[in-house]
Specification:
This protein is mainly alpha-helical. The protein contains 2 helices and 2 strands. The protein has helices spanning 26-34, 46-60, and strands at 18-19, 44-45. A two-stranded antiparallel sheet has the order 1-2. The longest helix has 15 residues, at 46-60. It is flat, with a radius of gyration of 15 Å.
Length: 68
């Protein structure tokens, strides 16, 4: 398990930034899981979720087409 950058402990339900599966409703949890930014079985750190969501957003709105 990765460590929290704030308190250097394991990221789990004890951390205020952790999003447990029971913190989200089923629809939100399923949608985030379907795009690969949330683990609906184990939960996820909110900072990691933001980073994954942001990178997914940028990936879907950019292209690597060579215009030369």
């Amino acid at each position: 398990m990765k460590k929290c950058p704030f308190n250097n402990n394991e990221c789990n339900a004890e951390c205020a930034l952790f999003i447990a599966p029971d913190d989200l409703n089923e629809l939100v949890c399923a949608r985030l899981n379907s795009i690969g930014v949330y683990d609906k079985e184990n939960g996820l750190c909110s900072l990691k979720s933001l980073a994954l969501s942001g990178s997914r957003f940028m990936f879907e709105r950019t292209s690597s087409v060579n215009r030369g």
